[in-house]
Amino acid sequence: MRIFIAGSTGVIGRRLVAQFVDHGHTVVGLTRDDRGDDIVEARGGDPYRGDLFDEESMIRGAKDADVVVHAATAIPTDDPTPEEWALNDRVRREGAHVLTTAGAEVGADQYLQQSIVWVARQPGGAAFDEESPLDPDSITQSAVDAEEIALEAGENYGFDVGVVRCGYFYAPDAYHTRAHGEALVRGKQPIIEGSEDAKISRIHASDAASAFVAVAEAGESGVWHAVDDEPVSAAAFSTSLAEHLDAPVPKRVSAETARRSVGDIQVKLLTNPMLTSNSKLRTEAGWEPAYPTYQDGLNDVVETWGEEGYLP
Ligand SMILES: NC(=O)c1ccc[n+]([C@@H]2O[C@H](COP(=O)([O-])OP(=O)(O)OC[C@H]3O[C@@H](n4cnc5c(N)ncnc54)[C@H](OP(=O)(O)O)[C@@H]3O)[C@@H](O)[C@H]2O)c1
């Protein structure tokens, strides 16, 4: 198949290019600069310089594509401003609109939308699945909107739409995983009181990418949760990563203190359960994680860092 990927240079996107190519597909990856071209080419894809917000540009990029993938996000990192979040919203909503239109124009069979399991997190912390009612907040609302834009486009244009909702992902090259490791080594990554009992469904970015490949090859429409087999609390995840890195045992801080340094959204994320399962993805798309637990995934993270000479 020919796959057009927006977001092909990101943490998940780089893996999408490599994995689709490994499975014998032809990949065209949207890029915006020389660095992006190098990333896509190094993984066996063809870079296409274009503008996500320009319909004509995306129609040209998606020419002859069987599958169009929207894996672009602009999630801000340190101390985000409202303008940065607004850009992320635009990438999600307008990106979904432009890419579904391009998919229809070029006669694609399937459109895949990256989303996040957060959107279906239940207020009381109960476990949830793909059928659960959605409960977005101000940041995840645009992910819900992108899902709706995609599903509606599938009905209007007659192509399959797959929504792949990823758990809280981590990877050796993800900004937040690296920042986490660095802060642990400096003794500056405390555990928030209350996070010990709040298990969260997570996923290694390579397994998030392989979920897209499985759904593309299954050629189905639907919503799937891409998470590993063992939800883990932020406290246990941090403690395990600290042990791997021979870092100091993380200190405990109250939620109130943490709120002052990392903000309310992050504290809520880490102190409330987010429990879902991959059983629908396994059954319907034949997907299996390469890293079924966070211990398996953290071994890979730390091994990769060791090979790169990153962190002591
Ligand atoms: N989802 C989670 O679980 C989670 C949790 C905490 C933090 N994060 C952080 O969120 C980020 C998410 O990773 P990711 O793979 O989704 O994103 P990423 O690694 O930041 O990559 C984003 C992708 O979207 C593209 N993109 C951004 N703005 C674009 C635009 N206006 N037009 C076209 N393409 C655009 C980027 O292209 P360029 O390379 O050209 O910029 C890149 O290919 C990471 O930094 C991660 O550390 C994620």
Class derived from helix and strand content: alpha/beta
State the total count of DSSP E strands.
Answer: 13
Strand order of the largest sheet: 3-2-1-4-5-6-11
Number of H- or I-type helical stretches: 12
Fraction of residues in H or I helices: 40-55%
Q: Kindly estimate the percentage of residues that lie in beta strands according to DSSP.
A: 15-25%
Largest β-sheet summary: 7 strands, parallel
What's the order of the H and E elements?
Answer: EHEHEHEHEHEEHEEEHEEHEHHHH
GO molecular function, one term: aldehyde dehydrogenase (NAD+) activity
Protein name: NAD-dependent epimerase/dehydratase
GO cellular component, one term: cytoplasm
Domain NAD-dependent epimerase/dehydratase: 3-222
Brief synopsis:
This protein is of the alpha/beta class and 312 residues long. It has helices at 11-22, 34-42, 55-61, 82-106, 141-157, 175-185, 205-218, 234-244, 255-262, 264-271, 279-285, 294-308; strands spanning 2-6, 26-31, 46-49, 67-70, 110-116, 160-166, 168-170, 191-192, 199-200, 202-204, 222-226, 232-233, 252-253. It is globular.
Q: What's the topology here?
A:
Blueprint lengths: L1 E5 L4 H12 L3 E6 L2 H9 L3 E4 L5 H7 L5 E4 L11 H25 L3 E7 L24 H17 L2 E7 L1 E3 L4 H11 L5 E2 L6 E2 L1 E3 H14 L3 E5 L5 E2 H11 L7 E2 L1 H8 L1 H8 L7 H7 L8 H15 L4
Parallel strand pairs: 1-2, 1-4, 2-3, 4-5, 5-6, 6-11, 7-10, 8-13
Antiparallel strand pairs: 9-12
Helix pairs in contact: 1-7, 3-4, 4-5, 8-12, 9-10
The protein binds NADP nicotinamide-adenine-dinucleotide phosphate (NAP).
The site of NADP nicotinamide-adenine-dinucleotide phosphate (NAP) has 22 residues, from helix 1, strand 7 and helix 6.
